[in-house]
Design brief:
The complex is a heterodimer of chains A (562) and B (949). Chain A is of the alpha/beta class. Chain A is 46% helix and 12% strand. The longest helix of chain A has 28 residues. With 949 residues, chain B is α/β, with parallel strands linked by helices. In chain B, 48% of the residues are buried. In chain B, helix 14 crosses helix 16, helix 22 packs parallel to helix 23 and helix 26 crosses helix 29. Classes of the chains: A alpha/beta (562), B alpha/beta (949). Chains A and B meet through helix 4, helix 5 and helix 6 of A and helix 34 and helix 37 of B.
């Protein structure tokens, strides 16, 4: 078991004490692995806490290899969807299944739930189960999605496509903070049983390698076709690795990926390339990765597994993948992020060009692999990896235990990277309570109106003005609501003015580069207003405008420090 | 004689009898004349041989050839043709048609078969064996023999094409030679296998008449069969494969064994209505002979039908009395009825009869005759109970009726027809303990029944009503109560009071249908034109009646249609393209209905739907309805399309209805247009509106020929004319308003309300001014009436039955009379108001679209109740509702979705749950959960393939 990172005691917590937690992590192996630091942290901070995980039925077996889980509840989505597809009485079957499922979960009397799936159905399910304290997504009485904690709102803000590049907080940390977890192992976790290790060793023996160099795992297949680095490039990479390190290459993957692997095997035609794809279960793959000295991958699923068993990775973040967001959550890994106008792209859109794949040559990957095999890499020559083409990062943990990426090949500082750094400071300070930005410090206080020469500066000014105007409107609203003789028409006017103002603030985020995360957090906060009492609502709204102004100031301060 | 031989004999006797009676009726659907029969034979030959390549070197056998309907065409396609039929009468007739005279077919031979084999046809000698409309009426035991014989006579590569019914197994009595048998496909396959044959394929049989009944799982098909080298098993083994449980022996089923009788009765009525009285009489006599029951005196029936036809036509057909003579079998003299206080007993028991008795008596001639079993009441010469054995016949009738499954399932009975009450007593004697309600058309019969014999029946019934206005008692199921009611109409009463019975039946099934059947009703409007606004009126009416409906608004396609004339000017080419366009719109509709099925499709006049699509819909069991709200003499496209509709409703009577029937419409009925009180209503208008829309006299409508002629001479009047297609020249330039644009209904109701006098002149393309022969009423008549405004309408022959002329409607018959009336009514505003009020009252009472649609549905429901009920029972919603029962809120939500006309799927159930629109109940949350689960899974699947370029 890896050691737990010590608490600094700084993280602001909504519900510090938990005894019976439900973690909703429905559908992906990667998501489950990424939740392991949070689960371990929950246990470390609440030793008697019971942790139940809710997963889709087909991922149930995966949970057996995740440490610290006390119970698993399975939702059979496949059966549900098949019943619905049958229509007619299939709907009743599905309805009765849900009823039974909800009744069972209600009996568990969970005191806290963390749902980091933004899906509408998990939100509704949690509403049905009725857990009082939530850290992530749930639903209100009317079926609208509600995001309970600021960290979860940040999660939603960060994955909002337009804002992705302005985020440098690994989603593992955002997830962890949503659950008020500060103590955590600085890596993902998976159990590797001895049987699985034996199978892995047997597989390696079966390979009958003639080389004696490092054992390198290569994940050539990817979950999405557009993230699939060309077999042609892999062939070149494999040849170089064989030539330069006398490597023993293990091609990992699933049965489905054999069609990608076969051309590589055929073309390279070397006894030191062994196909393990389709021959391993999940724990066996983990064990196999553990045996390897390095994983080279374009797929995040296998990458997370290697990280969980402590094997260093050289990972390509192609197409929609973004290293800051879902990069390897442990120290010392190498990340290659293409520099290209269209990336990271929208995961839901197909791509006909795949130009980003050409920014990473097999030579670069081979060189980085060789370097990493030799030890920690702290710098990369820009002649090997031109920074205008690809940025090479190394993963590490900052002083608060948050994963971060350090550029190794000297890329130029850009507006984007400045904002990314500034936002990191903002969120750690404002949401986490870590002392990054002190607005009250005499030397750091920005001017009341932020006079930036850039368009972004103008955007901040507009945000601050908007936030202040909002506070004035709310003050007037509070007066009108409190006065029985107030004019109904004025009340209507104020309401309309608030609606208009909110739209303007949201639009600043769309129009002015760098403002997106600030305004998106504001929009999510407004969307999550709850209650019917006008005074209570007005008071919540006032807080939201105040937070917006405060964060704008903090962002200005952070930018000035970068 | 063995059982099997008896069966063969039964086939021979039955078919000889039928052929002798009317070979066209029993052997073909084209029974109007021989020519029609040969045409249908040629058509069916084409269908059954589709894909084959007949040649002059081939031998063909027609099994069950009848009178040779298919053989005439077959002889032109094959070298040698052999017809086989069990009926000697049929073969004799076929010889007469095909083998005699100068045009005798030289390549055709005919054989009377023994019913069990194909002797004398030699082995392996036949290339093609056909059987059309025969096998399904042959007892299954015999079919086994024939299949074995097919293997024997077919050449090694020979094929058979057999028309039969596949789907849900339909068994009939073993010796039944008329009802259709339907086999399961897998059973047929096995039977053919055992017969050394193989089923190569099955295609659906599609004819202009409905032959498949998919809603109850029966499909008419042509089976393609080929001979194999396998040796056939025994005929018994083949039959056993075809119908593993065998056919029930005689006597096991009760009602329904008189199909032949009822078919004949209907045919007789049809013949009588057509004026073919001789054949009608023969047919009725035939019906009497084949009847398995003594409950009905067919002689009386015929007398009544014939008398009715004779009196109503009087145009050269035989006088009724002359025809009726042959049935005058009333040997007993009339008796006088002594009223022994029984009438008083009746009135005490049923006070409602007081007013019925005091109504003016019917014109019917009532008399009573004695028989050995008691007195019999006779109305217009028709005995209402059996003319000689009223008690025995009543008992038999009651026995049969109580054996019916409907009797078992109902809680109360309504019987139309009292007679002398023998049937009521018989029901009670046989143990019927259900409440009985009696409706009798003739009050005189009730009086006579009360007085004519010991009135034990009076205490055996729960209610009694009589006279033309007699109605099913309120509070019973169909009319708002809870009991499950069944209605039986006595055949004798049907004969003497067919309209009364039809009205009761229509009311019963109509009302029951409205509350019970809940079919999904599609409403298809035209692309454009004056009928378009009626579509929402129809839909609102359906909504008001609590019906499930779906509007097909195709008006969006109109602009595309209109574009055609921009590009193609020549009429033939343009018409061709326009038809193609309509065919495309039809296909859109068909696909829409495939996605979300309907049970009934109401097409408004000029709706763009092609015969092909109508045929497709009928194949799916959809009842097709045309509301032809146009002048049938002006728009004549119905001549080609009426035959594709099960119901045609017209706004004209008489010849129009006949013409629709002659053009092949399943049923045709009169149904005038109406008003929608939600739109056509009195309005309070502002001064500006009055100024804009108002005038002392107005006319609203398009500038048809006769209107231009008339209004040109009224240019000295303060008239405002609204509507399209008016000339822009003088004198119209000052009369026509707002450039002659088309007004919306909401606008023209303002015109109505703002005008002192609204002229309503029906359109005519040929005549000037008022059409003296105009019959139907235009929508404007009812719309103006419902708007509570005064209208002066040109006289129409159908007006007096809709409005009382003088008090409810003011009319004119000429331009001169219009001038006079304009002058008069201008000077008498109070009289205008009075008529307008009366007119509105009448319109709201009798002429709303809701009343029209109720009437339309009643007609459809009363005629197609069982079909729609079967569809309802087979509807997946039934299963959903049953399964949802334990979950009260879900069940109620299912009910609502069903009523909205939704499909039984998740989208249908949640279509009214809108997130963020009020608090969601737990059930709604669960349904939305399921909704989003499905959405998410679909999205994830898309995402997985998202990288595909």
């Amino acid at each position: 078991m890896h050691g737990i990172h010590e608490q600094t005691g700084a993280l602001k917590k909504r519900f510090p004490h938990k005894s019976n937690v439900l973690l909703v992590n429905i559908t992906r192996l990667g998501d489950m692995l990424q939740a392991t630091p949070t689960i371990a942290g929950l246990k470390a901070e609440n030793p008697d806490c019971k942790v139940t995980v809710l997963v889709e039925k087909q991922f149930e077996s995966v949970c057996h290899f995740i440490p610290n889980i006390d119970a698993v509840r399975c939702l059979d989505l496949g059966m549900t969807v098949r019943a619905l597809a049958r229509e007619q009485d299939g709907i009743i079957d599905a309805f009765e299944y849900v009823t039974e499922f909800v009744d069972e979960l209600r009996k568990e009397k969970f005191d806290y739930c963390l749902n980091m799936s933004s899906s509408a159905y998990t939100a509704l399910l949690l509403r049905l189960i009725g857990i009082d304290n939530n850290g992530g997504w749930t639903s209100d009485d009317e079926g609208n999605r509600v995001i309970e904690s600021d960290w979860a709102k940040l999660f939603a803000t960060s994955v909002f496509h337009q804002n992705r590049q302005l985020n440098s907080l690994n989603l593992v940390d955002v997830f962890r903070c949503s659950a008020d977890v500060e103590a955590h192992p600085k890596q993902l976790l998976i159990k590797v049983e001895s049987e699985a290790s034996q199978v892995a060793r047997d597989l390696i023996a079966e390979a009958q390698f003639t080389n004696t160099g490092p054992l390198i795992a290569l994940q050539a297949g990817a979950s999405q076709e557009k993230r699939q680095w060309s077999p042609r490039l892999f062939i070149s990479l494999v040849r170089q690795l064989l030539d330069r390190t006398s490597a023993r290459i293990v091609l990992t993957g699933t049965n489905k990926e054999l069609s990608i692997l076969q051309p590589i095997v055929d073309e390279v035609n070397n006894p030191n390339v062994f196909v393990a794809a389709g021959k391993t279960t999940i724990p066996q793959l983990a064990a196999l990765l553990k045996e390897c000295q390095l994983l080279v991958t374009g797929d995040t699923g296998t990458m997370h597994m290697a990280v969980a068993v402590g094997t260093p990775v050289v990972a390509m973040f192609l197409a929609s993948a973004f290293g800051f967001e879902t990069g390897p959550y442990s120290e010392g890994n190498i990340i290659l992020q293409p520099v290209i106008g269209c990336g990271p792209c929208n995961p839901n859109k197909p791509c006909a060009g795949l130009e980003c794949h050409d920014t990473i040559s097999p030579d670069i990957v081979a060189e980085l692999a060789v370097q990493r095999l030799a030890g920690e890499v702290h710098s990369v020559s820009s002649s090997i990896a031109p920074p205008e083409q690809v940025i090479v990062y190394r993963s590490f943990f900052d002083k608060y235990g948050f994963c971060d990426l350090q550029a190794l090949n000297n890329p130029a500082v850009t507006e984007l990277s400045r904002y990314r750094t500034a936002y990191r400071k903002l969120w750690l300070d404002d949401l986490g309570g870590y002392p990054e930005l002190d607005l009250d410090a005499p030397t750091s206080a920005p001017s009341s109106l932020l006079k930036f020469a850039t368009p972004a500066g103008e955007g901040l000014d507009q945000v601050v003005l908007g936030a202040r105007h909002g506070q004035q409107l709310i003050q007037e609203l509070l007066q009108l609501v409190g006065d029985a003789h107030s004019s109904a028409s004025r009340l209507g006017e104020v309401n309309r003015a608030i609606t208009d103002l909110d739209r303007q603030i949201e639009q600043i985020g769309y129009h002015v580069g760098g403002m997106g995360p600030l305004t998106r957090m504001f929009v999510f906060s407004k969307e999550n207003l709850s209650g019917t009492d006008p005074r209570e609502l007005a008071s919540q709204m006032l807080n939201i405008y105040q937070a917006l102004e405060r964060r704008a100031h903090k962002l200005a301060l952070a930018l000035s420090q970068v | 004689m063995s059982g099997f031989e008896k069966l063969l004999e039964q086939m021979r006797v039955d078919w000889d009898r039928r052929i002798a009676h009317d070979y066209r009726f029993w052997m073909s659907d084209g029974h109007a004349n021989d020519q029609a029969m040969w045409e249908s034979g040629a058509r069916d030959f084409e269908i059954i041989t589709a894909g084959l390549q007949p040649s002059s070197s081939q031998t063909m056998v027609d099994l069950g050839c009848g009178v040779g309907r298919l053989l005439k065409t077959a002889s032109q396609n094959f070298g040698r043709v052999i017809g086989v039929d069990v009926s000697a009468e049929a073969i004799e007739k076929a010889r007469e048609f095909l083998l005699s005279g100068p045009e005798a077919l030289r390549n055709t031979e005919l054989h009377v078969g023994n019913g069990s084999d194909l002797q004398p046809i030699p082995e392996s000698s036949v290339d093609v064996l056909l059987s059309f409309a025969a096998i399904s009426s042959i007892p299954t035991e015999v079919v086994g023999n024939y299949l074995r014989e097919m293997h024997r006579v077919l050449k090694p590569d020979g094929v058979a094409r057999l028309q039969l019914y596949l789907g849900l197994e339909q068994t009939v009595r073993r010796e039944d030679t008329l009802h259709l048998r339907c086999y399961r496909r897998e059973h047929l396959e096995e039977a053919l296998r055992r017969a050394g044959l193989v089923l190569e394929g099955v295609t659906e049989l599609v004819l202009p008449i409905q032959v498949s009944f998919k809603e109850i799982g029966i499909e008419a098909v042509i089976a393609s069969v080929r001979r194999t080298d396998r040796q056939p098993m025994s005929a018994e083994e083949i039959s056993a494969a075809l119908l593993p449980d065998g056919e029930p022996i005689e006597g096991e089923s009760t009602l329904g064994n008189d199909l032949e009788y009822w078919m004949t009765l209907n045919y007789a009525r049809e013949l009588a209505e057509r004026g073919d009285l001789d054949r009608a009489r023969e047919t009725l006599e035939y019906a009497e002979r084949v009847s398995h029951t003594t409950a009905v005196d067919v002689g009386d029936l015929m007398q009544r039908i014939v008398a009715k036809i004779g009196s109503s036509e009087g145009n050269g057909s035989k006088p009724a009395s002359e025809v009726a003579k042959c049935n005058d079998n009333s040997s007993n003299p009339p008796v006088q009825i002594e009223n022994s206080g029984a009438k008083q007993k009746l009135l005490t028991r049923f006070p409602n009869l007081q007013s019925r008795f005091s109504d003016s008596p019917s014109a019917a001639k009532i008399e009573v005759r004695n028989t050995e079993e008691g007195p019999v009441v006779i109305v217009d010469g028709v005995a209402l109970d059996h003319a000689s054995k009223p008690k025995s016949a009543a008992r038999q009738w009651a026995k049969q009726a109580m054996g019916d499954v409907k009797y078992a399932n109902c809680q109360e009975l309504v019987i139309v027809g009292l007679g002398f009450g023998y049937h009521i007593e018989a029901l009670r004697e046989l143990g019927c303990d259900k409440p009985i309600h009696i409706l009798e058309p003739h009050p005189e019969v009730v009086e006579a029944a009360g007085a004519g014999r010991p009135a034990a029946w009076i205490d055996m019934i729960s209610s009694l009503d009589c006279g033309v206005d007699a109605a099913i008692p309120q509070g019973s199921t169909v009319l708002g109560g809870n009991a499950v009611l069944e209605i039986w109409t006595r055949a004798q009463t049907q004969a003497v009071a067919s309209e009364f019975c039809a009205k009761i039946r229509s009311k019963f099934y109509g009302e029951r249908g409205l509350s019970l059947l809940r079919p999904n009703i599609g409403v298809l409007g035209p692309l454009s034109g004056g009928t378009l606004p009626m579509v929402p009126y129809v839909c609102r009416s359906l909504y008001g009646l609590g019906q499930r409906f779906r509007e097909y608004d195709v008006s969006g396609f109109a602009s595309g249609y209109d574009q055609v004339s921009k590009f193609v000017q020549g009429k033939p080419r343009r018409s061709s393209v326009e038809n193609t366009y309509c065919e495309m719109v039809s296909q859109v509709l068909l696909e829409s209905i495939n996605e979300r099925p309907v049970d009934i499709l109401i097409c408004m006049a000029l709706a763009p739907i092609s015969p092909r699509v109508l045929t497709e819909l009928r194949k799916r069991g959809v009842i097709t309805v045309l509301w032809f709200v146009e002048d049938y003499t002006r728009f004549t496209y119905w001549k080609e399309t009426a035959k594709f509709y099960d119901f045609v409703f017209t706004i004209q009577k008489g010849k129009c209805l006949d013409a629709m029937r002659a053009a092949g419409a399943g049923e045709s009925h009169y149904l005038p247009v109406g008003c929608d009180p939600g739109i056509h209503a009195p309005l309070s208008l502002s001064t500006e509106e009055k100024e804009r829309w108002g005038s002392p006299i107005s006319f609203m409508g398009a500038g048809y020929h006769n209107r231009q002629q008339l209004f040109a001479s009224f240019s000295d009047y303060p008239i405002k004319i609204w509507g399209t297609e008016w000339p822009t020249c003088r004198p119209f330039d000052h009369m026509v308003q707002e450039g002659g644009r088309r007004l919306s209904p909401a606008e023209y109701v303002k015109v109505f309300n703002a005008s002192d006098i609204n002229i309503n002149l029906h359109s005519s393309h040929e005549r000037d001014g008022v059409d003296p022969f105009g019959d139907f009423l235009n929508p404007r008549t009812f719309e103006l009436a419902a708007s509570g405004v005064f209208q002066l309408v040109d006289h129409r022959s159908l007006l007096p039955e809709a409005f009382e002329v003088g008090t409810e409607m003011a009319t004119f018959r000429s331009a001169e009379e219009l001038r006079e009336k304009l002058q008069y009514f201008t000077a008498h505003p109070e009289e205008r108001a009075k008529i307008a009020n009366a007119s509105r009252e009448r319109a709201l009472k009798d002429h709303t679209y809701q009343a029209r649609i109720r009437s339309m549905l009643s007609t459809i429901f009363s005629s197609r109740f069982e079909q729609l009920k079967a569809r309802l029972d087979a509807s997946p919603w039934q299963k959903v509702l049953a399964r949802a029962k334990p979950h009260a809120e879900l069940h109620s939500r299912c009910e609502k979705a069903f009523t909205r006309g939704e499909e039984p799927n998740l989208d249908g159930l949640v279509s009214d749950v809108v997130a963020g629109n009020g608090k969601l109940s737990e059930t709604e949350q669960k349904l939305m959960f399921l909704f989003h689960v499905r959405k998410q899974i679909i999205r994830m699947k898309e995402e997985e393939s998202g990288g595909k370029s």
